[in-house]
Task: structure prediction
Amino acid sequence: MKNTNQNRRRFLKQAAKASLLGSGMGAMGGKLNIMSSALAASGDYAGLNDYKALVCIFLYGGSDSYNMFIPYDAGGHQEYAQSRGDLSLARDTLLPTADSVVGFNPNMPGLRDLYDNGRLSLVANVGNLIVPVTRSSFQAESIAVPSDLFAHNHQQEQWQKGLSSQPTSIVGSGWGGRMADLLMEANGGSDLPATFSVNGSNAFLPGNIGTPISINPQSGPSLMAYLDNSDGQSRNNARAESISRIMAIQDEHLIKQFVANSFLRARDSSQLISEVLRNSPTFATPFDDTSRVATQLRMVARMIAGREALGMKRQVFFVGMGGWDTHDYQTPRLIELTQELDAALTGFQQTLGELNIEDSVTSFTASDFGRTLTVNGNGSDHGWSGHYMVMGGAVNGGQMIGDWPDFSIGGSEDIGSNGRLIPRMSINEYGAALGTWMGLSPSDMADVFPDLQNFSSDWQNSYGLFRN
Result:
């Protein structure tokens, strides 16, 4: 088995290098710099014996977290309400927390309870940064900022890739995938990648080595029936055997080997995952079948339940929820969105409790960007900084990491005069705190996020997000 694993790793590394062929010299230089870090893990991850999974819930459209999490003390709420105007939520409608710091949106009682029960924390003022930014440096254009700020597609891609100092055309991997590349040794002899999407393609999961598996949240992976002889039909048997023989033919051409091996791995992975899902337990926790995000999270729970059969010690999942671009009719739309998110996340956490694996799974939210404090018609416009949730049994919950922003319009954290607030914490720091919990060494974590060098080293203790 040892020789098999060594050969597999050698092949994957060669295939990853081969994927760079044909790039321009400038692009190749950037990719090779990222590649070298991903192929040279400093940690002994093969020795990790515990199980951990990271679940990204990406809120597509730019979530208005300023109306999800609100200052609860009277003075802070007054500042918030003054800036938000007609969008503001009355203080007596909020769900207070035990620490009296945060008022949760009234449609998020389950998440408020997770916060009070120590299984959820908030991380304040997070956003896409290359270096720390101030109002004066932004207005003077004297400092590097990410390109195409406030544009949905560009910010989604940059958020998920986590390396905004380089053009996205050069960065071919996401920070979830780069973490998984480094942690692949923890999964021992498994031929499956550590990355799984239940929301189609995304920029978060592709690695420099590993390629994520996309799973239909309702039916699971495609069985690739034309390569599957499990139905016992002689026609399918003959077809499957013929294709297997063709794919087994060795060829010195590296790309041909890569295609053949990828094809067979896809078939074998599909069959293995389908078998695991057929044997997954029935959950007592109800899931709303009409909710796309709840359906995705149920599939994630089923995959986690099959971790041992899949040979997994480390997994990274991607879940997506759309509809957060609330330019119009924000108040009624946010009611529906927060109700659905609350039910889906609390149901998922309850299911992990059923599986007795709460302490081993950390879920976190992310989004294109936050939104403006000021009203745009009867909604809000594209912003920058936002607040996000980190949830799980290992989370040192019931706290807000960071402080409330300056809510004043045109104030110290507003880049202009419409309440578009500057992030205090970068995506890099946020992701590095999560990666540290996954077991990555500080040097490897800095390689996943090369822009980390521009910020303080506070991320190395994960900001106290997790229990010791």
Notes: The CA atoms of residues 131 and 389 lie 23 Å apart. The longest helix spans residues 254-278. Confidence is low (pLDDT under 50) at residues 1-39, 229-235. The chain has 14 helices and twelve strands.
